[in-house]
C-alpha cells in the first residue's frame, strides 16, 4: 500500500519534497489522523506552524501520509487507510505511528518527512524502515496546528535517508536552530536492554567512534516506560475517546482506548512523580557525557503476521517511550542490516541540545 493518504503538490516545483503526517494541519485540507471516524472532518482553517516553516524554506509538500489510526499504535497496521509497505523489509511492520512518513522517505517519494512522536512514533518507524529519524526536545518545535492539541509528551520531528538531509530538515523546523559548538568527547552507553545481537552491534558502533565510552544505568527506565503509558493513555482518551462511540474506530485502537479510559488520577500523580525522577536521572548522566546511546528497538521488528497477533506491540517502545516522558531529544540512526531485520542506534541528548545530538551522530557515522 502507498505511504500516502492523499497526494498533492503545494509549494515550488523545484523545492525539497516533504511528506506530512496526517496529524499536522494543512490549510484547506482535512486532518483525519488515519481514521474512518474522521473521514468527514472539516478542512483545516490554516497551516500548522511547522507547515508554514517548511513552505517558507522553499520546500514542496507532496502529500499527507498514512499513520497508525489516531496516532495510537506501534505497528503501523491500518485496515482503513492501508498499511504502508516497508520497502526494504516488506515482510516486517513499517512501524508506527508515523508509518507513512517513514515509508515515503524510504521509497524516495519524499526528501524528508514530518512526523510526531508521543511514545516512539518517529523513532520506531525509522528503525523499522532502516532510515534516520529524530524527535526534538519537548516544546522546542512549535506544535500549533498539530493533533492532539493538548499533550505533555508529543514532539514534532523528521525522517530522512541521510544525516545531512535530516540535519537540513531540523534546521527548517527548528526556527532557532543554532550551530553546535560541542566537541564530542564522552558517550554513556546503556547495555543489557535488548536482544544480545542488537546490543553487540550498538556497542561496536559506539566503540568505533573513538570517543570515550562508559557504561551507565538508568534504574528508573522501566518505571518511566510504565508511567509514559499511563500518561499517553489518559491524554489520548481525553483527546479522542469520544470517537469510540461512532463505531468507526478500528477494533484494535478502540479496544486500547477503552482500556485507556480506566487510568486513575492517582496513577497520573504517580506517573508525574516518575517523570521528574527519571528526567533528573537522565540529566545526571548527561552532566558527565555528551549523549546517552542505546538501541532504538529491544528486538528486531516483528513481521506483519506476528503484528496481527499483537496489534498493540507496546513493548517495542520500552527503550524510546521513557524519553518522551522526560522530554529529552532523541535521534535514531541505522547501523546494520541483518537477515532478521535492521538495527538502529538511539542517541539521547540534553534538553534543548538537539543540534548537539546531530553533531555527535555525524561523528559516530563518519567513524563507525
Structural descriptors:
alpha/beta, 11 helices, 11-stranded mixed β-sheet, Amidase signature (AS) enzymes, single chain
Order of strands across the widest beta sheet?
1-3-2-4-6-5-10-11-9-7-8
Multimer state? single chain
Quickly give the structural class.
alpha/beta
| Beta-strand content bin | 15-25%
Q: If you average the pLDDT, what whole number results?
A: 97
The CATH architecture designation is Alpha-Beta Complex
- The N- to C-terminal Cα distance equals 34 Å
EC number: 3.5.1.4
GO molecular function: amidase activity
Protein name: Amidase
Domain Amidase: 9-358
What does this structure look like?
This protein is of the alpha/beta class and 368 residues long. It has one domain: Amidase signature (AS) enzymes (Alpha-Beta Complex), CATH 3.90.1300. The protein is 34% helix and 17% strand. α6 crosses α7 and α6 packs across α8. It starts with a strand and ends with a helix. The model has no long low-confidence stretch (mean pLDDT 97).
